[in-house]
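Run log // design_07
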Protein backbone atom coordinates (compact mmCIF):
# COMPACT_ATOMS: atom_id res chain seq x y z
CA UNK A 1 0.00 0.00 0.00
CA UNK A 2 1.27 3.46 -0.84
CA UNK A 3 -0.25 5.20 2.18
CA UNK A 4 -0.11 4.58 5.91
CA UNK A 5 -3.16 6.67 6.83
CA UNK A 6 -6.12 8.47 5.33
CA UNK A 7 -5.81 12.27 5.51
CA UNK A 8 -9.12 12.68 7.27
CA UNK A 9 -8.32 10.07 9.90
CA UNK A 10 -5.48 12.02 11.50
CA UNK A 11 -5.89 13.78 14.82
CA UNK A 12 -3.97 14.63 17.98
CA UNK A 13 -3.46 10.99 18.86
CA UNK A 14 -1.00 10.73 15.95
CA UNK A 15 1.29 13.56 17.11
CA UNK A 16 4.97 12.79 16.44
CA UNK A 17 4.19 9.86 14.18
CA UNK A 18 5.53 9.75 10.67
CA UNK A 19 2.77 9.14 8.17
CA UNK A 20 2.46 8.73 4.43
CA UNK A 21 -0.63 10.17 2.80
CA UNK A 22 -2.01 9.90 -0.71
CA UNK A 23 -4.56 12.32 -1.98
CA UNK A 24 -5.55 15.40 -3.92
CA UNK A 25 -4.52 19.01 -3.40
CA UNK A 26 -7.72 20.59 -2.14
CA UNK A 27 -6.20 24.02 -1.64
CA UNK A 28 -2.70 25.43 -1.83
CA UNK A 29 -1.48 28.63 -0.17
CA UNK A 30 1.89 30.36 0.20
CA UNK A 31 2.41 31.93 3.54
CA UNK A 32 5.53 33.69 4.71
CA UNK A 33 7.89 31.43 2.81
CA UNK A 34 6.12 28.14 3.55
CA UNK A 35 3.57 26.28 1.43
CA UNK A 36 0.33 25.00 2.93
CA UNK A 37 -1.40 22.16 1.17
CA UNK A 38 -4.84 21.05 2.28
CA UNK A 39 -4.73 17.42 1.23
CA UNK A 40 -7.97 15.56 0.62
CA UNK A 41 -8.89 11.93 0.32
CA UNK A 42 -12.00 9.85 0.88
CA UNK A 43 -11.86 10.38 4.61
CA UNK A 44 -11.45 14.14 4.69
CA UNK A 45 -8.83 16.86 4.84
CA UNK A 46 -5.55 17.49 6.57
CA UNK A 47 -3.22 20.45 6.42
CA UNK A 48 0.30 19.77 5.24
CA UNK A 49 3.06 22.36 5.74
CA UNK A 50 6.19 22.26 3.63
CA UNK A 51 9.04 24.61 4.42
CA UNK A 52 12.21 25.48 2.54
CA UNK A 53 14.35 23.35 4.93
CA UNK A 54 13.43 20.45 2.66
CA UNK A 55 14.13 22.09 -0.68
CA UNK A 56 13.11 19.16 -2.87
CA UNK A 57 9.72 18.72 -1.22
CA UNK A 58 9.31 22.47 -1.09
CA UNK A 59 9.85 22.84 -4.82
CA UNK A 60 7.29 20.14 -5.58
CA UNK A 61 4.75 21.60 -3.16
CA UNK A 62 5.31 24.98 -4.68
CA UNK A 63 4.65 23.63 -8.15
CA UNK A 64 1.57 21.65 -7.17
CA UNK A 65 -1.83 22.95 -8.16
CA UNK A 66 -5.41 22.12 -7.22
CA UNK A 67 -6.28 18.46 -7.79
CA UNK A 68 -2.71 17.26 -8.31
CA UNK A 69 -2.33 13.77 -6.85
CA UNK A 70 0.47 13.68 -4.28
CA UNK A 71 2.10 11.17 -2.02
CA UNK A 72 3.44 12.94 1.04
CA UNK A 73 5.47 11.60 3.93
CA UNK A 74 5.85 13.74 7.01
CA UNK A 75 5.47 14.09 10.75
CA UNK A 76 2.23 14.90 12.52
CA UNK A 77 2.54 17.86 14.86
CA UNK A 78 0.34 20.07 16.98
CA UNK A 79 -0.69 23.26 15.22
CA UNK A 80 0.57 26.51 16.73
CA UNK A 81 -1.79 28.10 19.21
CA UNK A 82 -4.24 30.30 17.39
CA UNK A 83 -3.93 28.48 14.06
CA UNK A 84 -6.19 25.52 14.95
CA UNK A 85 -9.24 24.98 12.81
CA UNK A 86 -12.15 23.71 14.90
CA UNK A 87 -14.25 23.14 11.76
CA UNK A 88 -11.97 20.36 10.61
CA UNK A 89 -11.72 17.00 12.43
CA UNK A 90 -7.96 17.12 11.90
CA UNK A 91 -7.90 20.82 12.71
CA UNK A 92 -5.75 20.57 15.85
CA UNK A 93 -2.81 19.09 13.97
CA UNK A 94 -0.89 19.41 10.75
CA UNK A 95 1.63 17.29 8.90
CA UNK A 96 5.11 18.67 8.36
CA UNK A 97 5.77 17.35 4.85
CA UNK A 98 9.28 16.00 4.25
CA UNK A 99 9.00 14.00 1.07
CA UNK A 100 6.64 14.60 -1.80
CA UNK A 101 6.00 12.57 -4.88
CA UNK A 102 3.76 13.99 -7.57
CA UNK A 103 1.76 10.92 -8.64
CA UNK A 104 -0.18 12.86 -11.21
CA UNK A 105 -0.89 16.38 -12.32
CA UNK A 106 -4.29 17.81 -13.11
CA UNK A 107 -5.72 20.37 -15.42
CA UNK A 108 -7.61 23.13 -13.69
CA UNK A 109 -10.99 21.53 -12.94
CA UNK A 110 -14.04 23.06 -14.68
CA UNK A 111 -15.31 24.15 -11.27
CA UNK A 112 -13.52 24.45 -7.94
CA UNK A 113 -13.95 21.43 -5.70
CA UNK A 114 -12.95 23.20 -2.49
CA UNK A 115 -14.64 25.95 -0.47
CA UNK A 116 -14.71 28.10 -3.57
CA UNK A 117 -17.30 25.77 -5.11
CA UNK A 118 -20.41 27.63 -6.07
CA UNK A 119 -23.23 25.79 -7.69
CA UNK A 120 -22.17 25.93 -11.28
CA UNK A 121 -25.35 24.32 -12.51
CA UNK A 122 -26.23 20.69 -12.55
CA UNK A 123 -25.41 20.16 -16.20
CA UNK A 124 -21.75 20.84 -15.78
CA UNK A 125 -21.66 18.88 -12.54
CA UNK A 126 -23.20 15.87 -14.28
CA UNK A 127 -20.89 16.16 -17.26
CA UNK A 128 -17.91 16.02 -14.92
CA UNK A 129 -19.57 13.78 -12.36
CA UNK A 130 -16.27 12.07 -11.53
CA UNK A 131 -15.02 15.43 -10.28
CA UNK A 132 -18.28 16.51 -8.70
CA UNK A 133 -18.13 13.41 -6.54
CA UNK A 134 -14.73 14.43 -5.22
CA UNK A 135 -16.50 17.19 -3.34
CA UNK A 136 -16.81 16.26 0.32
CA UNK A 137 -20.55 16.88 0.30
CA UNK A 138 -21.16 14.38 -2.49
CA UNK A 139 -18.74 11.91 -1.05
CA UNK A 140 -20.50 12.08 2.31
CA UNK A 141 -23.83 11.30 0.68
CA UNK A 142 -22.45 8.32 -1.21
CA UNK A 143 -20.80 7.05 1.94
CA UNK A 144 -24.07 7.43 3.80
CA UNK A 145 -25.87 5.52 1.07
CA UNK A 146 -23.40 2.69 1.44
CA UNK A 147 -24.04 2.63 5.20
CA UNK A 148 -27.78 2.46 4.56
CA UNK A 149 -27.51 -0.57 2.28
CA UNK A 150 -25.07 -2.24 4.63
CA UNK A 151 -27.43 -1.77 7.62
CA UNK A 152 -30.36 -3.00 5.59
CA UNK A 153 -28.51 -6.13 4.55
CA UNK A 154 -27.50 -6.78 8.13
CA UNK A 155 -31.07 -6.33 9.34
CA UNK A 156 -32.57 -8.56 6.68
CA UNK A 157 -29.86 -11.21 7.00
CA UNK A 158 -30.51 -11.28 10.73
CA UNK A 159 -34.21 -11.84 10.06
CA UNK A 160 -33.57 -14.80 7.80
CA UNK A 161 -33.98 -13.18 4.39
CA UNK A 162 -32.11 -14.65 1.40
CA UNK A 163 -30.58 -12.31 -1.13
CA UNK A 164 -31.53 -13.63 -4.57
CA UNK A 165 -30.80 -11.98 -7.90
CA UNK A 166 -33.52 -11.91 -10.52
CA UNK A 167 -33.12 -11.31 -14.26
CA UNK A 168 -32.71 -7.92 -15.84
CA UNK A 169 -33.52 -9.21 -19.31
CA UNK A 170 -37.09 -10.30 -18.86
CA UNK A 171 -40.69 -9.69 -19.87
CA UNK A 172 -42.81 -6.67 -19.10
CA UNK A 173 -43.81 -6.44 -15.43
CA UNK A 174 -46.87 -4.30 -15.08
CA UNK A 175 -46.13 -1.60 -12.52
CA UNK A 176 -47.94 0.96 -14.58
CA UNK A 177 -45.03 2.62 -16.39
CA UNK A 178 -43.62 2.31 -19.88
CA UNK A 179 -41.02 -0.43 -20.40
CA UNK A 180 -37.46 -0.10 -21.51
CA UNK A 181 -37.07 -2.62 -24.32
CA UNK A 182 -34.00 -4.51 -25.47
CA UNK A 183 -34.13 -6.05 -28.95
CA UNK A 184 -33.19 -9.70 -29.22
CA UNK A 185 -30.57 -10.67 -31.81
CA UNK A 186 -31.25 -14.38 -31.63
CA UNK A 187 -35.02 -13.97 -31.97
CA UNK A 188 -35.38 -11.08 -34.32
CA UNK A 189 -38.52 -9.06 -33.86
CA UNK A 190 -38.75 -10.04 -30.20
CA UNK A 191 -37.79 -7.86 -27.27
CA UNK A 192 -36.80 -8.21 -23.68
CA UNK A 193 -38.19 -5.68 -21.24
CA UNK A 194 -36.07 -4.42 -18.37
CA UNK A 195 -37.89 -5.06 -15.10
CA UNK A 196 -40.02 -2.27 -13.69
CA UNK A 197 -39.55 -4.27 -10.49
CA UNK A 198 -38.74 -7.89 -9.66
CA UNK A 199 -42.40 -8.34 -8.67
CA UNK A 200 -43.23 -11.59 -10.44
CA UNK A 201 -39.89 -13.24 -9.81
CA UNK A 202 -40.10 -12.57 -6.11
CA UNK A 203 -43.58 -14.06 -6.03
CA UNK A 204 -42.26 -17.11 -7.89
CA UNK A 205 -39.48 -17.42 -5.30
CA UNK A 206 -42.20 -17.71 -2.69
CA UNK A 207 -43.82 -20.49 -4.74
CA UNK A 208 -40.36 -22.10 -4.71
CA UNK A 209 -40.47 -22.06 -0.94
CA UNK A 210 -37.72 -19.50 -0.28
CA UNK A 211 -39.93 -18.01 2.43
CA UNK A 212 -38.05 -14.72 2.86
CA UNK A 213 -36.35 -12.96 -0.03
CA UNK A 214 -34.71 -9.61 -0.52
CA UNK A 215 -32.70 -7.93 -3.21
CA UNK A 216 -31.25 -4.50 -3.66
CA UNK A 217 -32.55 -4.32 -7.19
CA UNK A 218 -32.25 -1.96 -10.10
CA UNK A 219 -35.65 -1.16 -11.61
CA UNK A 220 -36.35 0.56 -14.89
CA UNK A 221 -39.31 2.72 -15.80
CA UNK A 222 -39.52 4.83 -18.90
CA UNK A 223 -41.51 7.69 -17.46
CA UNK A 224 -41.49 11.39 -17.98
CA UNK A 225 -39.23 12.44 -15.20
CA UNK A 226 -40.05 14.62 -12.28
CA UNK A 227 -37.71 15.87 -9.61
CA UNK A 228 -37.74 12.63 -7.67
CA UNK A 229 -37.76 10.12 -10.53
CA UNK A 230 -34.99 8.42 -12.46
CA UNK A 231 -35.33 6.01 -15.38
CA UNK A 232 -33.29 3.50 -13.42
CA UNK A 233 -33.56 3.48 -9.69
CA UNK A 234 -32.91 1.13 -6.80
CA UNK A 235 -35.42 -0.73 -4.70
CA UNK A 236 -34.95 -2.68 -1.54
CA UNK A 237 -37.23 -5.44 -2.65
CA UNK A 238 -38.72 -7.80 -0.08
CA UNK A 239 -41.10 -10.77 -0.19
CA UNK A 240 -42.22 -13.18 2.52
CA UNK A 241 -44.48 -16.19 2.87
CA UNK A 242 -46.96 -17.11 5.61
CA UNK A 243 -47.01 -13.62 7.06
CA UNK A 244 -49.95 -11.30 7.60
CA UNK A 245 -49.94 -7.73 6.36
CA UNK A 246 -49.34 -6.67 9.98
CA UNK A 247 -46.32 -8.98 10.24
CA UNK A 248 -44.86 -7.58 7.06
CA UNK A 249 -45.41 -3.99 8.12
CA UNK A 250 -43.80 -4.72 11.47
CA UNK A 251 -40.70 -6.25 9.99
CA UNK A 252 -40.32 -3.38 7.50
CA UNK A 253 -40.99 -0.83 10.20
CA UNK A 254 -38.36 -2.44 12.38
CA UNK A 255 -35.89 -1.94 9.58
CA UNK A 256 -36.73 1.76 9.23
CA UNK A 257 -36.61 2.28 12.99
CA UNK A 258 -33.20 0.66 13.21
CA UNK A 259 -31.83 2.62 10.25
CA UNK A 260 -32.87 5.98 11.62
CA UNK A 261 -31.67 5.15 15.10
CA UNK A 262 -28.30 3.79 14.00
CA UNK A 263 -27.49 6.36 11.35
CA UNK A 264 -29.25 9.55 12.46
CA UNK A 265 -29.89 8.87 16.12
CA UNK A 266 -33.57 9.53 15.49
CA UNK A 267 -35.94 7.52 17.68
CA UNK A 268 -39.30 6.63 16.22
CA UNK A 269 -42.37 5.50 18.14
CA UNK A 270 -44.61 2.91 16.56
CA UNK A 271 -45.78 4.26 13.21
CA UNK A 272 -49.42 5.29 13.12
CA UNK A 273 -51.61 3.51 10.58
CA UNK A 274 -54.20 5.39 8.61
CA UNK A 275 -56.56 4.13 5.95
CA UNK A 276 -56.33 5.57 2.48
CA UNK A 277 -59.89 6.88 2.90
CA UNK A 278 -58.99 8.79 6.05
CA UNK A 279 -55.78 10.16 4.54
CA UNK A 280 -57.67 11.48 1.54
CA UNK A 281 -60.43 12.93 3.67
CA UNK A 282 -58.19 14.73 6.16
CA UNK A 283 -55.14 15.54 4.04
CA UNK A 284 -56.26 15.08 0.42
CA UNK A 285 -53.21 12.92 -0.12
CA UNK A 286 -52.33 9.25 0.03
CA UNK A 287 -48.95 10.28 1.40
CA UNK A 288 -49.83 12.89 3.99
CA UNK A 289 -47.09 14.96 5.54
CA UNK A 290 -48.07 14.67 9.19
CA UNK A 291 -45.54 17.28 10.30
CA UNK A 292 -48.05 19.84 9.09
CA UNK A 293 -50.95 20.37 11.48
CA UNK A 294 -53.47 21.62 8.88
CA UNK A 295 -56.50 19.51 7.95
CA UNK A 296 -59.22 19.65 5.36
CA UNK A 297 -62.83 19.66 6.46
CA UNK A 298 -65.61 18.51 4.15
CA UNK A 299 -68.38 21.05 3.82
CA UNK A 300 -70.28 19.93 0.70
CA UNK A 301 -73.31 18.99 2.79
CA UNK A 302 -73.44 22.52 4.22
CA UNK A 303 -73.22 24.25 0.86
CA UNK A 304 -75.63 22.23 -1.29
CA UNK A 305 -78.14 25.06 -1.35
CA UNK A 306 -75.75 27.98 -1.37
CA UNK A 307 -76.52 30.73 -3.87
CA UNK A 308 -72.79 30.67 -4.67
CA UNK A 309 -72.75 28.27 -7.61
CA UNK A 310 -68.99 27.68 -7.48
CA UNK A 311 -69.70 25.82 -4.22
CA UNK A 312 -73.21 24.50 -4.85
CA UNK A 313 -72.25 22.88 -8.17
CA UNK A 314 -69.55 20.51 -6.85
CA UNK A 315 -71.49 20.11 -3.58
CA UNK A 316 -74.28 18.46 -5.57
CA UNK A 317 -71.99 16.49 -7.90
CA UNK A 318 -71.36 12.89 -6.78
CA UNK A 319 -67.85 13.21 -8.17
CA UNK A 320 -67.36 16.64 -6.62
CA UNK A 321 -65.79 17.66 -3.36
CA UNK A 322 -65.98 20.86 -1.32
CA UNK A 323 -63.51 21.41 1.49
CA UNK A 324 -62.46 24.10 3.90
CA UNK A 325 -58.89 24.52 5.07
CA UNK A 326 -58.49 26.55 8.22
CA UNK A 327 -55.21 28.41 8.59
CA UNK A 328 -54.75 29.49 12.20
CA UNK A 329 -53.66 33.15 12.38
CA UNK A 330 -53.90 33.30 8.61
CA UNK A 331 -55.77 36.58 8.70
CA UNK A 332 -52.62 38.54 7.95
CA UNK A 333 -51.82 36.64 4.76
CA UNK A 334 -51.67 39.48 2.24
CA UNK A 335 -53.79 39.91 -0.87
CA UNK A 336 -50.67 39.45 -2.96
CA UNK A 337 -49.84 36.18 -1.21
CA UNK A 338 -53.40 34.94 -1.72
CA UNK A 339 -53.04 35.72 -5.44
CA UNK A 340 -49.87 33.65 -5.44
CA UNK A 341 -51.66 30.73 -3.79
CA UNK A 342 -54.47 31.08 -6.32
CA UNK A 343 -51.92 30.69 -9.10
CA UNK A 344 -50.37 27.78 -7.26
CA UNK A 345 -53.62 25.80 -7.03
CA UNK A 346 -54.18 26.65 -10.70
CA UNK A 347 -51.26 24.36 -11.54
CA UNK A 348 -53.42 21.51 -10.24
CA UNK A 349 -56.44 22.55 -12.26
CA UNK A 350 -58.31 24.59 -9.64
CA UNK A 351 -60.17 27.46 -11.24
CA UNK A 352 -59.87 29.75 -8.24
CA UNK A 353 -59.18 29.87 -4.53
CA UNK A 354 -62.04 31.17 -2.42
CA UNK A 355 -61.23 32.35 1.10
CA UNK A 356 -62.72 33.97 4.15
CA UNK A 357 -60.74 36.05 6.60
CA UNK A 358 -62.20 35.64 10.04
CA UNK A 359 -62.13 39.00 11.84
CA UNK A 360 -64.89 38.77 14.39
CA UNK A 361 -67.09 35.69 14.60
CA UNK A 362 -69.60 37.36 16.88
CA UNK A 363 -70.76 39.57 14.00
CA UNK A 364 -71.93 36.73 11.76
CA UNK A 365 -75.28 36.12 13.27
CA UNK A 366 -76.55 39.63 13.81
CA UNK A 367 -77.51 39.74 10.15
CA UNK A 368 -76.45 43.36 9.78
CA UNK A 369 -72.76 43.56 9.24
CA UNK A 370 -71.42 40.06 8.82
CA UNK A 371 -69.09 41.62 6.30
CA UNK A 372 -67.20 43.40 8.99
CA UNK A 373 -66.90 40.13 10.87
CA UNK A 374 -65.84 38.09 7.86
CA UNK A 375 -63.83 39.54 5.05
CA UNK A 376 -64.32 37.75 1.75
CA UNK A 377 -65.53 38.31 -1.80
CA UNK A 378 -67.87 35.31 -1.57
CA UNK A 379 -69.88 35.61 1.62
CA UNK A 380 -72.68 37.69 0.13
CA UNK A 381 -73.95 34.52 -1.51
CA UNK A 382 -73.65 32.24 1.49
CA UNK A 383 -76.20 32.29 4.28
CA UNK A 384 -75.30 33.19 7.87
CA UNK A 385 -76.31 29.76 8.97
CA UNK A 386 -74.00 28.09 6.49
CA UNK A 387 -71.17 30.38 7.49
CA UNK A 388 -71.74 29.64 11.15
CA UNK A 389 -71.68 25.88 10.49
CA UNK A 390 -68.44 26.23 8.58
CA UNK A 391 -66.88 28.28 11.38
CA UNK A 392 -67.99 25.71 13.94
CA UNK A 393 -66.87 22.72 11.93
CA UNK A 394 -63.44 24.10 11.13
CA UNK A 395 -63.03 25.46 14.66
CA UNK A 396 -62.02 28.82 13.17
CA UNK A 397 -61.12 31.58 15.60
CA UNK A 398 -60.86 35.32 15.16
CA UNK A 399 -57.66 36.02 13.27
CA UNK A 400 -57.82 32.86 11.15
CA UNK A 401 -58.27 32.44 7.43
CA UNK A 402 -60.24 29.70 5.70
CA UNK A 403 -59.42 28.58 2.17
CA UNK A 404 -61.93 26.62 0.11
CA UNK A 405 -61.59 24.06 -2.63
CA UNK A 406 -64.64 23.16 -4.71
CA UNK A 407 -64.44 21.13 -7.91
CA UNK A 408 -64.22 17.52 -9.07
CA UNK A 409 -62.80 15.55 -6.15
CA UNK A 410 -59.57 14.85 -8.00
CA UNK A 411 -58.89 18.53 -8.66
CA UNK A 412 -59.75 19.48 -5.08
CA UNK A 413 -57.52 16.75 -3.67
CA UNK A 414 -54.57 17.60 -5.89
CA UNK A 415 -54.88 21.34 -5.38
CA UNK A 416 -55.79 21.53 -1.69
CA UNK A 417 -53.45 18.69 -0.74
CA UNK A 418 -50.58 20.60 -2.31
CA UNK A 419 -51.72 23.93 -0.85
CA UNK A 420 -51.81 22.40 2.61
CA UNK A 421 -48.17 21.34 2.28
CA UNK A 422 -47.12 24.68 0.81
CA UNK A 423 -48.81 26.62 3.60
CA UNK A 424 -47.21 24.36 6.17
CA UNK A 425 -43.76 25.27 4.87
CA UNK A 426 -44.44 28.93 4.06
CA UNK A 427 -45.90 29.62 7.49
CA UNK A 428 -43.33 27.50 9.35
CA UNK A 429 -45.97 25.26 10.84
CA UNK A 430 -43.96 22.01 10.95
CA UNK A 431 -44.45 20.41 14.34
CA UNK A 432 -41.58 17.91 14.19
CA UNK A 433 -38.68 16.81 12.05
CA UNK A 434 -39.84 13.34 11.08
CA UNK A 435 -43.37 12.03 10.70
CA UNK A 436 -43.62 8.43 9.47
CA UNK A 437 -46.86 6.50 9.04
CA UNK A 438 -48.44 3.61 7.18
CA UNK A 439 -51.25 4.28 4.78
CA UNK A 440 -53.32 1.11 4.35
CA UNK A 441 -56.35 -0.27 2.52
CA UNK A 442 -55.86 1.41 -0.81
CA UNK A 443 -58.54 1.05 -3.46
CA UNK A 444 -57.89 -1.89 -5.79
CA UNK A 445 -58.60 0.06 -8.96
CA UNK A 446 -58.79 3.57 -10.24
CA UNK A 447 -60.43 4.89 -13.34
CA UNK A 448 -58.21 6.14 -16.15
CA UNK A 449 -59.05 9.16 -18.26
CA UNK A 450 -60.57 6.91 -20.90
CA UNK A 451 -62.90 5.24 -18.42
CA UNK A 452 -61.00 1.96 -17.95
CA UNK A 453 -59.84 0.47 -14.69
CA UNK A 454 -56.20 0.22 -13.75
CA UNK A 455 -54.55 -1.16 -10.63
CA UNK A 456 -53.69 1.35 -7.96
CA UNK A 457 -50.83 -0.90 -6.86
CA UNK A 458 -50.33 -3.72 -9.35
CA UNK A 459 -52.54 -6.54 -10.64
CA UNK A 460 -51.12 -9.12 -8.19
CA UNK A 461 -52.34 -7.29 -5.12
CA UNK A 462 -54.86 -9.13 -2.98
CA UNK A 463 -58.26 -7.50 -2.52
CA UNK A 464 -60.21 -7.63 0.70
CA UNK A 465 -63.22 -9.92 0.33
CA UNK A 466 -64.09 -12.78 -1.99
CA UNK A 467 -63.90 -13.34 -5.74
CA UNK A 468 -67.66 -12.64 -5.85
CA UNK A 469 -67.31 -9.34 -3.94
CA UNK A 470 -64.69 -8.25 -6.42
CA UNK A 471 -66.75 -9.18 -9.43
CA UNK A 472 -69.90 -7.56 -8.10
CA UNK A 473 -68.36 -4.30 -7.04
CA UNK A 474 -64.89 -3.63 -8.39
CA UNK A 475 -65.18 0.13 -7.86
CA UNK A 476 -65.51 -0.30 -4.12
CA UNK A 477 -62.88 -3.00 -3.71
CA UNK A 478 -60.01 -2.20 -1.39
CA UNK A 479 -56.70 -4.00 -1.33
CA UNK A 480 -54.49 -5.41 1.38
CA UNK A 481 -51.85 -2.87 0.41
CA UNK A 482 -49.73 -0.59 2.55
CA UNK A 483 -47.40 2.33 1.89
CA UNK A 484 -44.76 3.61 4.26
CA UNK A 485 -44.85 7.39 4.15
CA UNK A 486 -42.29 9.75 5.62
CA UNK A 487 -42.70 13.52 5.65
CA UNK A 488 -45.13 13.45 2.77
CA UNK A 489 -43.04 11.11 0.62
CA UNK A 490 -43.86 7.48 -0.12
CA UNK A 491 -40.69 5.61 0.74
CA UNK A 492 -42.02 2.10 0.42
CA UNK A 493 -45.08 0.16 -0.52
CA UNK A 494 -46.38 -3.32 -0.99
CA UNK A 495 -49.22 -5.70 -0.44
CA UNK A 496 -50.36 -9.21 0.23
CA UNK A 497 -50.54 -11.02 -3.10
CA UNK A 498 -53.19 -13.06 -4.75
CA UNK A 499 -52.32 -16.75 -4.41
CA UNK A 500 -55.53 -18.19 -5.75
CA UNK A 501 -55.73 -18.51 -9.56
CA UNK A 502 -59.45 -17.72 -9.64
CA UNK A 503 -58.93 -14.44 -7.81
CA UNK A 504 -56.02 -13.61 -10.09
CA UNK A 505 -58.23 -14.24 -13.13
CA UNK A 506 -61.02 -12.11 -11.68
CA UNK A 507 -58.60 -9.22 -11.19
CA UNK A 508 -57.26 -9.55 -14.72
CA UNK A 509 -60.83 -9.52 -15.95
CA UNK A 510 -61.69 -6.40 -13.99
CA UNK A 511 -58.65 -4.77 -15.58
CA UNK A 512 -59.85 -5.72 -19.03
CA UNK A 513 -57.05 -8.27 -19.48
CA UNK A 514 -58.79 -11.09 -21.34
CA UNK A 515 -58.09 -14.79 -20.87
CA UNK A 516 -55.93 -14.92 -23.97
CA UNK A 517 -53.82 -11.92 -23.06
CA UNK A 518 -53.45 -13.20 -19.48
CA UNK A 519 -52.26 -16.57 -20.81
CA UNK A 520 -49.89 -14.94 -23.26
CA UNK A 521 -48.30 -12.61 -20.73
CA UNK A 522 -48.63 -14.33 -17.37
CA UNK A 523 -49.13 -18.03 -18.01
CA UNK A 524 -46.05 -18.76 -15.89
CA UNK A 525 -47.61 -16.97 -12.93
CA UNK A 526 -51.02 -18.55 -13.38
CA UNK A 527 -49.30 -21.94 -13.66
CA UNK A 528 -47.28 -21.30 -10.52
CA UNK A 529 -50.40 -20.41 -8.58
CA UNK A 530 -51.75 -23.89 -9.42
CA UNK A 531 -48.84 -25.71 -7.81
CA UNK A 532 -49.19 -24.96 -4.14
CA UNK A 533 -48.47 -21.24 -3.97
CA UNK A 534 -48.19 -20.19 -0.33
CA UNK A 535 -49.93 -17.10 1.01
CA UNK A 536 -47.34 -14.40 0.49
CA UNK A 537 -46.74 -10.69 0.38
CA UNK A 538 -44.02 -8.11 0.54
CA UNK A 539 -43.01 -4.62 -0.27
CA UNK A 540 -40.30 -2.52 -1.79
CA UNK A 541 -38.54 0.58 -0.54
CA UNK A 542 -37.23 3.25 -2.85
CA UNK A 543 -33.61 3.39 -1.77
CA UNK A 544 -32.82 6.63 -3.58
CA UNK A 545 -35.67 8.52 -2.01
CA UNK A 546 -34.95 7.10 1.40
CA UNK A 547 -31.33 8.21 1.23
CA UNK A 548 -32.39 11.59 -0.13
CA UNK A 549 -34.66 12.16 2.85
CA UNK A 550 -32.11 10.91 5.35
CA UNK A 551 -29.31 13.11 3.98
CA UNK A 552 -31.50 16.16 3.46
CA UNK A 553 -30.61 16.25 -0.24
CA UNK A 554 -33.17 18.00 -2.40
CA UNK A 555 -32.98 15.70 -5.40
CA UNK A 556 -32.49 11.97 -5.77
CA UNK A 557 -29.85 12.82 -8.36
CA UNK A 558 -27.69 14.02 -5.48
CA UNK A 559 -27.65 10.58 -3.89
CA UNK A 560 -27.06 8.58 -7.08
CA UNK A 561 -23.48 8.30 -8.28
CA UNK A 562 -24.20 8.60 -11.99
CA UNK A 563 -27.75 9.83 -12.47
CA UNK A 564 -29.57 10.77 -15.62
CA UNK A 565 -31.17 14.08 -16.48
CA UNK A 566 -34.86 14.87 -16.73
CA UNK A 567 -34.69 13.83 -20.38
CA UNK A 568 -33.22 10.45 -19.37
CA UNK A 569 -29.72 11.13 -20.67
CA UNK A 570 -26.34 10.64 -19.06
CA UNK A 571 -24.44 13.84 -19.75
CA UNK A 572 -21.11 12.23 -18.92
CA UNK A 573 -21.17 9.16 -21.17
CA UNK A 574 -23.70 10.73 -23.54
CA UNK A 575 -25.94 7.69 -23.33
CA UNK A 576 -28.22 6.93 -25.07
CA UNK A 577 -26.23 7.09 -28.30
CA UNK A 578 -26.73 6.09 -31.92
CA UNK A 579 -25.36 2.68 -32.92
CA UNK A 580 -23.75 1.44 -36.09
CA UNK A 581 -25.82 0.19 -38.98
CA UNK A 582 -24.18 -3.22 -38.61
CA UNK A 583 -25.49 -3.60 -35.08
CA UNK A 584 -28.98 -2.68 -36.17
CA UNK A 585 -28.84 -5.12 -39.07
CA UNK A 586 -27.85 -7.92 -36.70
CA UNK A 587 -30.91 -7.10 -34.68
CA UNK A 588 -33.13 -6.96 -37.72
CA UNK A 589 -33.93 -3.33 -37.05
CA UNK A 590 -34.25 -0.55 -39.59
CA UNK A 591 -34.79 2.97 -38.29
CA UNK A 592 -37.61 5.02 -39.69
CA UNK A 593 -36.61 8.37 -41.04
CA UNK A 594 -37.20 11.12 -38.54
CA UNK A 595 -40.15 13.33 -39.37
CA UNK A 596 -38.91 16.32 -41.35
CA UNK A 597 -35.75 14.68 -42.64
N1 LIG B 1 -43.37 -4.24 -6.90
C1 LIG B 1 -43.93 -3.18 -6.12
C2 LIG B 1 -43.42 -1.82 -6.61
O1 LIG B 1 -42.43 -1.76 -7.31
C3 LIG B 1 -43.64 -3.30 -4.68
C4 LIG B 1 -44.30 -4.49 -4.08
O2 LIG B 1 -45.51 -4.65 -4.24
O3 LIG B 1 -43.60 -5.22 -3.38
O4 LIG B 1 -43.97 -0.82 -6.26
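design_07 sequence
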Amino acid sequence: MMRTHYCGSLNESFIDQTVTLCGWVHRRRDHGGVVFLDMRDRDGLVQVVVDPDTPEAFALADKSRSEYVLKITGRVRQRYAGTENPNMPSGMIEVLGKEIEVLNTSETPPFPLNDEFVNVGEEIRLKYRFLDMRRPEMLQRMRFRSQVTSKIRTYLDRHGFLDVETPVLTRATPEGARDYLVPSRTQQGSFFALPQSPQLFKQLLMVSGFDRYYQIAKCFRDEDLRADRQPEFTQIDIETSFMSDEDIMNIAEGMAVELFDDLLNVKFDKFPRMTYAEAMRRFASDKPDLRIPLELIDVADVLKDAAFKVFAGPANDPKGRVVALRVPNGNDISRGKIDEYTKFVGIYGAKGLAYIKVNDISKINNGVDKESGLQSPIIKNISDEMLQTIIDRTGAQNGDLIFFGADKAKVVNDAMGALRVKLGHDLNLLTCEWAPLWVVDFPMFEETDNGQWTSVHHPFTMPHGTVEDLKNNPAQATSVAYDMVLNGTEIGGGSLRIYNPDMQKAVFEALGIGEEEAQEKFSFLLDALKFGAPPHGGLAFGLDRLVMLMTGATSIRDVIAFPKTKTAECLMTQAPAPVEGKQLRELGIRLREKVGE
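The radius of gyration is 30 Å.
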